[in-house]
Amino acid sequence: MIIYTKDEIYRHIQLNHETIQVIDDAFTSLETKNVAMPPIMRVDVPEHNGEVDVKSAYVEGIEMFAIKVSSGFFNNYKLGLPSGNGLMMLINSVTGQPESLLLDNGYLTDIRTAAAGAVAANYLASENARTAGVIGAGSQARYQLKALKLMRDIEQVTVYGPTEKRVREFAEEMEKDLGMKVTIASSPEQVVTESDVVITTTPSKKPVIKAEWLHPGLHITAMGSDAEEKQELEAGILEKADLFVCDVREQSKRLGELHHASDSDAMFAKAVELGEITSGKRQGRTHDDQITVCDLTGTGVQDTAIAVHAYNILKNYKAGSSIGKRNQLTQLT
Amino acid sequence: MIIYTKDEIYRHIQLNHETIQVIDDAFTSLETKNVAMPPIMRVDVPEHNGEVDVKSAYVEGIEMFAIKVSSGFFNNYKLGLPSGNGLMMLINSVTGQPESLLLDNGYLTDIRTAAAGAVAANYLASENARTAGVIGAGSQARYQLKALKLMRDIEQVTVYGPTEKRVREFAEEMEKDLGMKVTIASSPEQVVTESDVVITTTPSKKPVIKAEWLHPGLHITAMGSDAEEKQELEAGILEKADLFVCDVREQSKRLGELHHASDSDAMFAKAVELGEITSGKRQGRTHDDQITVCDLTGTGVQDTAIAVHAYNILKNYKAGSSIGKRNQLTQLT
């Protein structure tokens, strides 16, 4: 059992074209390989406003697969702690033995989530997209914007968030990091109106984007909704879109934007999975004027893909704490 | 994040009256406290004849809870490796931070499973039970017998298993360990006929005990069935029993003996949960001539109970590998 700390993982694994391709391939594997991806396991801790999710996926032929534990404890700010925590465990596919523990504290989840946004943008945003809008100003908003920038020649960014200070910090930081103008919008409507690509990264329980704001050529990626009660897009948006894409149909219907569709069976039938597009079975955007929408709820196959990728990079560096000598692992783990 | 190896856990945690009480209390908590116990998450690895289960349960008011990963890879014997593997992770209930990793390799699962058998025997077997029968001769059969011995004055044991060599080894080892006669039976029927308490610990996919063998005063604990296709008891046994008990009704119906009942809705209504008995809401055995049956499928609340118990004992010893200094944990995990 080799253990890697967050510092080691942070030093060697970044959001870049390589990790985006890893996630692109992960979505493709959902179409081209046998994948065992059980529903998300969730443990609620209502006393402390907390929840723990467990995700996993085994992909046929892969040497290891991940079991990811991630938590959100939303009273942690009172203790001066971040709300999110998490780690990934890699299990040997042949023997079932635990091979490695990645104490990433949610960093690899941030990377694989942003990479999924990049994959969506790559197939669904117009090639000519130059303006990006972000609703929400947290850490995933930052990652998503950086991911989008890797896929399209974005020249201007508009951002909206409910907390002025957070939005101002976001704008300043992104202007510096990305070397481009970041405008603070006065409303979500302004963001949508002024952008070719819009990314929503909120924990909202009611729609933040209205169907009447959609315009030709727009692409929206909705990252936030990953629970029954969460919703970022007005239901009419799914119907109005020329192409509605999601990571996993069943999951979007249970936890994502599809859950709120006025005729969810009809939308379910109309929805395209991202893997169908990355694998070439279905087309993404076919002309500049289409309106495209992608709902990402987060999948175990992304976790397995990023964890195996990280492990393969990390094992080439002298790092990690080995619990017991390597040849005693069978005894120990 | 404090990590304990199997050797450390093995040295300090044993199957005894204390651990049995811990599991008794765990079942009671299912009745008396708010418990979030999601369905078992299962990842199948059919290529390698393997499966990984994830179990968890949060008990209101508890300081930590476990997420347990356990695997069974049934081609491992070809590699000279045990089929089972596993570890438990303890999550802080207030912050969601990972507190400890127990690299127990399935040992704590063995203990808590045997302890559940002891709890069942304590409430359901006749006080006058003197003969025990075991069907199956693996490691859980050994633990179960030791657990039963802690609860009843067993004087003679009968064992049946399909592989002569394994059964002979079992008998020799148990005679030595428990200091009593162990008879090798020629059939499961002989085991049932000659025993006051019978424990089945097989991975059987068809019944190993027939209803016609039941006799007044008998108690059966069926440990083996924990998947849709597994079954140890002929369906008629559930109906014929004066009292049918299971650990969790919904789980027994999905994965255990209730799954095979001829009228599973009626049996579901008739079934009593072990926690109803440990908590005093319902009675266990009320007279010596009753026939009682208990189906144990294994629950996350047992895992949380044994993991917290083990952690509390282990932290009092100078042991464990701390990943990072204690005050840097927020950064690291």
Automatic annotation (TrEMBL), chains A, B:
It comes from the Bacteria. GO terms for cellular component: cytoplasm. It holds the Pfam family OCD_Mu_crystall. GO terms for biological process: carboxylic acid metabolic process. Transmembrane segments: none annotated. One of its GO terms (molecular function) is oxidoreductase activity. InterPro entries: NAD(P)-bd_dom_sf, ODC_Mu_crystall, ODC_N. Belongs to the ornithine cyclodeaminase/mu-crystallin family. This is Cyclodeaminase. It comes from Exobacillus caeni.
